[in-house]
Specification:
heterodimer; A: Rossmann fold; six-stranded mixed β-sheet; four-stranded antiparallel β-sheet; 7 helices; 28% strand; B: alpha+beta; six-stranded mixed beta barrel; two-stranded antiparallel sheet; 12 strands; 18% strand
Chain lengths: 239, 414
């Protein structure tokens, strides 16, 4: 599904900053992967590249057997729209749109009519237990509810991969667990490929594979086959 | 690409309506600009209409000659001599100045007692030849004007003004054939004039009865004296260009020094019309400059606030880009917001101005003057088209700034 080969990225803001120094990584379809690292390790940059939000300088990124390089803005937007679902730490819901309209927004950019996209958005909200909140503005929702709305928005276009950037960063431990369980459920039941960037090991230990990044290179990749064996196993989300 | 579909229009409208105070603030400049423009243009039209009514029906290429005491001694006559025009002068002018189309004399009497039944009022009387109608159009509502037979037979007939008709014959719109006593002599009404101009000095056409010159001569023992001589220039000539020759004919006939600037008084209608037209052209220019200036500053205001807005909406635009908006979607969204705002503000400005003008028109009508204060529909349509263009232009700079927003900016903003 995702194939990264020797990815390099340098930022030129003042003095050049070599953020990614040759990342090679393979993520198969249906995997639930977490990327861990300290702040400044390059994990967010990597996620931005995976999400076609940012470009890379050297190497090769194949997404679903399509080479993602030097794409036009329109192509990049279309790929983001159809192949990738984003979940952000700060939810990033549009403040003047209600929950249903926020969920429906990606479909607007696919050219769906208002009626059709709102109906589908209602289906997704119902599935995530937010039906009664559909007509509320984000400011009227709790953090957990907001993140569930954001998840609904991320999955409404049935993307191949879901990229989550610190999805529990702004949530308390109880709602964090709900959100992680929701992602896990999506991974197990819908067979969605999910990549989570986090610095919380409690979150990481819920995933099948933990990629550790340090100073722009991959340190080690932990296979976390049996979740129960971890010291932070089921129900032991550390905060 | 589906750019101008209902879908994207809905999205734009929703964004504007969900941010009401922002939209209202942005729109106010345009609203005010178009309101001022339409209000001033409509008001200017109305004023022009009211003023030009004073000259209604008067031939624009005409000139009226009157007399004043001489200022230069000439051929044995002393300075300060009073002199009078003669009916024959009109024929003489026609003979000697071939560029003159019509020349005719007129005499006036003011505060003449008129009576029908128990009603007695004083009004003006004007004695004319039939040709007078070509210079001062009577706008006959009913009946006919003075004709040659009336002149020859010195008939006691009259064409009465609107005010006289309404005062003495409130029961009918067509008093033709009825009698009116003018200075105790019964006259038969042959026509009603709806001219409303103010050209007969000291009196309004509405308050004047027009009778044959010959009848008047007999009644008032006028002889061949004429109070005024009016003439018009032939097609292709201007009154201004022949006024000098006409004056010279009159001066040599009445033994007045050709250099006497005072003795012959000419009211050149052409010059008057030109002056008034120039005045209104100047006012119109001023209105356009002020109106368009205000409109432009309104557009700059829209652009400015949209610019700030785009900055404020960095996250929103970043999110939109992250979940699949093309750059053109964003561009179009911002420009459409600007256009929709501008048009809505502009249309409400136009409607508000039209309502106010309607009010002014009603008040003016209550004061007894009919005037059209509204702007033509084509101008309103033109204004709407101009607004669309302005809106699009105002949206351009903010839209290009919005384009510079990358999806990662959405996350950075926090």
């Amino acid at each position: 599904m995702i194939h990264l080969e020797n990815i390099h990225k340098t930022y030129y803001a003042g003095s050049p900053l070599h953020v990614l120094k040759g990342i090679s990584l393979d993520i198969a379809a249906g995997e639930f992967v977490s990327i861990m690292g300290a702040s400044g390790s390059g994990k967010s940059t990597l996620l931005n590249i995976l999400g076609i939000l940012d470009t890379y300088d050297a190497g090769q990124y194949m997404l679903n057997d399509v080479l993602i390089k030097d794409l036009s803005e329109n192509r990049a937007a279309d790929y983001r729209n159809r192949m990738i679902g984003f979940i952000f730490q700060s939810f990033n819901l549009i403040p003047f749109k209600n929950a249903m309209e926020n969920v429906a927004l990606p479909l607007y950019y696919m050219g769906w009519s208002r009626k059709k996209r709102n109906a589908l958005a209602m289906d997704y909200l119902e599935r995530l237990g937010l039906k009664e909140w559909a007509h509320h503005l984000p400011s009227e929702l709790s953090g957990g509810q907001k993140q569930r709305v954001a998840i609904a928005r991320a999955i409404i276009t049935k993307p191949q991969i879901i990229l989550a950037d610190e999805p529990t960063g702004a949530l308390d431990s109880k709602t964090s667990e709900e959100v992680i369980n929701l992602l896990k459920q999506l991974n197990e039941e819908e067979k969605m490929t999910i990549v989570v960037v986090t610095h919380e090991s409690g979150v990481a230990y819920h995933t099948n594979k933990i990629v550790h990044i340090k100073d722009g290179i991959i340190g080690n990749i932990e296979e976390n086959v049996s979740l129960d064996t971890s010291p932070f196993g089921q129900g032991g989300l550390m905060k | 690409m589906r750019l101008f579909d209902l879908n994207s229009f809905e999205e734009v409208l929703e964004t504007l309506l969900r941010n009401k105070s922002r939209s209202l603030l942005t729109a106010f400049g345009i609203f005010w600009g178009i309101f001022l423009l339409v209000f001033f243009i409509g008001g200017g039209n109305g004023l022009k209409y009211l003023l030009s009514k004073n000259f209604d029906g008067v031939a624009q290429n005409s000139c009226i000659i009157g007399t004043r005491p001489t200022s230069i001694a000439y051929k044995g006559y002393q300075t300060g001599r009073n002199w009078e025009l003669d009916v024959a002068d009109a024929q003489l002018i026609m003979q000697k100045v071939p560029e003159v189309a019509v020349a005719t004399s007129a005499n006036m009497r003011y505060r003449v007692s008129m009576q029908v039944g128990n009603t007695t009022e004083s009004r003006s009387v004007k004695g004319v030849f039939p040709e007078y109608a070509t210079i001062d159009n009577p706008h006959l509502y009913v009946g006919r004007y003075i004709n040659q037979t009336d002149i020859e037979q010195r008939r006691k007939v009259c064409v009465i003004g609107k005010n006289i008709a309404e005062t003495f014959f409130p029961d009918t719109k067509d008093p033709c054939g009825r009698q009116i006593n003018i200075g105790n002599i019964p006259f038969t009404i042959i026509g009603v004039s709806h001219s409303s101009n103010n050209m007969s000095i000291g009196s309004n056409a509405e308050r004047t009865a027009v009778i044959p010159r010959t009848t008047m001569q007999q009644l008032y023992n006028l002889g061949t004296k004429a109070a005024l001589i009016c003439y018009t220039a032939k097609e292709g000539y201007t009154v201004t260009s022949i006024a000098k020759s006409v004056e010279n004919v009159v001066k040599s006939e009445h033994l007045i020094d050709p250099n006497d600037k005072q003795a012959v008084m000419s009211y050149n209608m052409e010059e008057m019309f030109q002056m008034i037209n120039a005045l209104f052209r100047g006012v119109a220019w001023l209105i356009w400059i002020i109106g368009i200036g205000t409109l432009l500053s309104g557009a700059v205001g829209v652009s400015n606030i949209m610019m700030v807005t785009v900055r404020e909406r960095t996250t929103e635009i970043g999110i939109r880009r992250a979940i699949g908006a093309h750059p053109s979607h964003i561009l179009w969204q911002i420009i459409m917001e600007s256009v929709v705002l501008t048009i809505m503000a502009g249309l409400s400005g136009i409607i508000f101005a039209i309502l106010i003008l309607y009010g002014v028109e009603t008040v003016v009508a209550m004061m007894g003057a009919q005037a059209n204060f509204q702007i033509p529909f084509s101008m309103a349509a033109g204004a709407a088209a101009l607004l669309t263009l302005l809106g699009a232009l105002a949206g351009l700079a903010p839209a290009y700034r919005a384009l510079a927003i990358k999806p990662i900016d959405a996350m950075r903003e926090e």
